[in-house]
Write a structure and sequence with these properties.
The complex is a heterodimer.
Chain A (H helix, E strand, L loop, with lengths): L6 E3 L7 E7 L6 E7 L2 H18 L5 E7 L4 H15 L9
Parallel strand pairs in A: 3-4
Antiparallel strand pairs in A: 1-2, 2-4
Helix pairs in contact in A: 1-2
Chain B lengths: L1 E4 L3 H6 L7 E5 L9 H14 L6 E5 L8 H8 L6 E4 L5 H17 L8 E6 L2 H5 L1 H5 L5 E6 L1 H7 L12 H13 L3 E4 L8 H14 L3 E2 L7 H8 L3 H19 L5 E3 L2 E3 L1 H13 L8
Classes of the chains: A alpha+beta, B alpha/beta.
Chain lengths: 96, 285
């Protein structure tokens, strides 16, 4: 998937996650900034999930800011997918 | 049926624990225009991964004449929830267009065409006038529901909360549903703090023949369930009638008396309906 613009999805509500994506130049790699209210318990798992899903979407050169308020895996997947598709111009929605 | 906004993860993931018979995951009126994509994707993931147990899951999509409707169908139909609720239906031509799209999506995914049901939502005066034709349009339609707020707006009613303005519509919709032997659900009661008012309305619409009611807050579930669940007295009476029916049937007698009152086929049918609503296994009687 080719990202084109900054985009975000989700919210700061409990059980949700706010994910912002920003395309970077080719070769810049993945820069993931993660904050979570359950960082100690699930931080590593959350990071693994994000990397796995970026692999599935074939996204490599990107900055991602994740602010998690206790979201379950399906919510994280959904918000990441939404943010990526908005960034790629494949969906309409809230943009920064 | 508990309405759950399709862009609210906390409510979506907990939808099955509140005790409602069914939940409606809403992509339409409960979702802001600039979040339709987010809700569609979130509901899709929830349908794939959350176990709602015995709760029937319905998804309300956007109308196909909006920029979102067809995308909703493409995302949700392959996931085959129990039912798809189609809002603001007015004509059989619309229903045909929707069914054609649903059919094509199911073909593409190798899915059967009779598993996922359709609920038709009547929310305009034209929809009310056409409801008989709509209710019988397809065997996939297993419920009609009334959207009272939108209907009141379409009718330009000044005061809608007392239900007077939509009373004719309620009765027409019930009759159309009954003529097709399908379920019929009443509209939401918007004042979540007025529990007495909700009970009064639920009792009224039950008498009209509605088989369920939409609710917008988990606090309303107990009241609606209480109204629609038969009482112990009603269940005992129904069981007595049913047992007498079985005894008399064996002897070839079609009309008999129970507690001094005549019982014929319609009375037996009503008794069976009460027992079904109370989840009584007839074979145990």
């Amino acid at each position: 998937m080719e990202l084109k613009i900054k985009a975000q999805a989700g919210s700061f509500e409990s059980s949700d996650v706010l994910i912002m994506v920003e395309p970077l130049d080719t070769g810049a790699g993945r820069q993931i900034e993660l904050q979570s209210i359950v960082m100690k318990q699930f931080g590593e798992e959350l990071l693994t999930q994000i990397h796995n899903e970026l692999d599935q979407w074939e996204v490599n050169d990107v900055r991602i800011i994740v602010n998690d308020k206790g979201a379950l895996s399906p919510t994280i997947s959904a918000r990441l997918e939404t943010a990526l598709k908005r960034s790629a111009g494949l969906q309409t929605g809230t943009l920064i | 049926m508990l309405y759950i906004p399709g862009n609210n993860p906390a409510m979506l993931q907990q939808g099955g624990v509140y005790g409602a018979d069914g939940i409606l995951l809403d992509l339409e009126d409960a979702v802001a225009l600039n979040q339709k994509d987010a809700a569609r994707i979130l509901v899709s993931h929830m349908l794939k991964h959350i176990d709602y147990d015995t709760c029937e899951v319905t998804v309300r999509v956007n109308h196909i004449d909006t920029p979102f409707g067809e995308e909703d169908l493409h995302a949700i139909v392959p996931l085959q929830p129990h039912a798809l609720r189609i809002p603001k239906v007015e004509t059989t031509e619309e229903l045909q267009r929707i069914l054609d799209i649903v059919h094509k999506i199911e073909e593409a995914h190798g899915l059967p065409h009779d598993q996922m049901k359709l609920h038709v939502m009547i929310e305009t005066a034209l929809g009310v006038e056409n409801v008989y034709k709509l209710a019988r349009f397809s065997p996939r339609i297993d419920a009609i529901s009334i959207g009272g707020q939108d209907l009141a707006a379409d009718m330009q009613l000044v005061k809608a909360n007392d239900g007077i303005g939509i009373d004719y519509a309620r009765k027409q919709i019930v009759m159309a549903a009954k003529s097709c032997k399908i379920d019929v659900f009443d509209t939401v009661y918007v004042d979540v703090d007025d529990e007495d008012g909700l009970r009064v309305e639920a009792e009224y619409i039950k008498k009209l023949g509605f088989t369920g009611k939409a609710i917008i807050n988990p606090r309303q579930i107990e009241i609606v369930n209480d109204v629609f669940t038969p009482t112990e007295k009603e269940i005992r009476k129904a069981a007595k009638i049913y047992k007498a029916f079985e005894r008399n049937k064996a002897e070839g007698i079609g009309v008999f008396a129970v507690d001094g009152k005549m019982v014929d086929a319609p009375v037996v049918q009503r008794a069976i309906r009460v027992l079904e609503m109370a989840d009584v296994d007839l074979s145990t009687l």
